Amino acid sequence: MKGAPIQDEVIVLRSIKLGETSRIVSCLAQRHGRVKLVARGVRQARGRWAGLLEPGNEVEAVFYAHPDRELWTLAEAGLLRAALTGGGSLDKLSYLLAAMELADRLLPEREPVEAVAGMYRRFLDHWHDEGPEGMPALFFALETALLDELGLSTDLWRCGECGRRLEEGEAAFFRPAEGDLCCRACAGGNGVWVAEQDLGLWRLLSGFLDRPEAAPALEDQQKRKIGTLLHLHMMHHLPRYRIPASLFWLKKPDEGEGEKR
Ligand SMILES: [Zn+2]
Q1: How far is ligand 1, taken at its centre, from the CA of residue 80, in Å?
Q2: What's residue 1's pLDDT?
């Protein structure tokens, strides 16, 4: 039984083939959370929606919900903003796909996580406006915001053990299992030190998506450090987390030989 059609704005996260002519499209819907829609006839040469259901695209969708079935049915789709037609570099594309993959993997299905769709829209605003140099910082800002929304925020200003305020210009010890920072006196056990500059950067990236300024270009050492902290945090607390496949495209063959492209 078909219910009433539902209209919602969605961001396409992933699109996979189904049979000869159809696709399954994983979407982040503004009001419905992550949903899986079946798009029939989409792969015919001049089929409707050709090129529309690509990752990162924002789409006005009409669909039918079937509470008892795994897939809902896409009935109509209109493009609001295309991500990939903007061209851009391989770096930009990689980070876009990585961001979409994280949502596809980590968000609960059919459970609207308040503010996540808006957060992704703000990520896309930045992504469209910014050059490749800002992409790593932008992606880390997204990961930080996603952790916050999933209830895994790290207090970057307080020691998780003694509660003392961590001052600016003070290093701290990150404990992935606890997901917190410790002051020098409380540091111990499994974790990694975060130098004061890196902690300053982490604080800058926290809440960054809400701000209009461009993402800072990070040095390689900063990318590694912040990337590792967030990776460890997600590895410990999100069983479905994996490093997004598209980020492996960024590994340069000459890496480690100290040579720039
Ligand atoms: Zn302490």
Answers
A1: 49
A2: 57
Q: Which residue type does 239 have? A: P
Residues surrounding ion ligand 1 at CB below 5 Å: 159, 161-162, 164, 183, 186
Tell me the fold of 90-248. de novo design (two linked rop proteins) (1.20.1440)
What spacing in Å lies between the alpha carbon of 170 and ligand 1's midpoint? 12
| Distance (Å) from CA 184 to ligand 1 centroid | 7
Q: What is the distance between the alpha carbons of residues 60 and 124, in angstroms, rounded to a whole number?
A: 16
CA–CA separation, 170 and 64 (whole Å):
53
> HSE-up of 214 (CA within 13 Å, CB side)?
11
Taking the CB of residue 173, how many other CB atoms lie within 10 A of it?
20
Q: Where are the domains of the chain?
A: 6-85, 90-248
Strands (E), 162-201: 172-175, 180-182, 192-194
What does the pLDDT read at residue 43?
66
**How many angstroms does the Cα of residue 204 sit away from the middle of ligand 1?**
22
CA of 181 to the centre of ligand 1 (A): 9
Calculate how far, in angstroms, residue 19's C-alpha sits from the geometric centre of ligand 1: 57
**Residue 125: both structure tokens together:** 């605003």
CA of 183 to the centre of ligand 1 (A): 4
C-alpha of residue 176 to centroid of ligand 1, in Å: 16
Domain 6-85 has CATH 2.40.50.140: yes
Q: How many residues does the chain have?
A: 261
Residues of the chain with pLDDT under 50: 256-261
What's the pLDDT at 72? 94
Question: What pLDDT score was predicted for residue 41?
Answer: 81
pTM of the model: 0.91
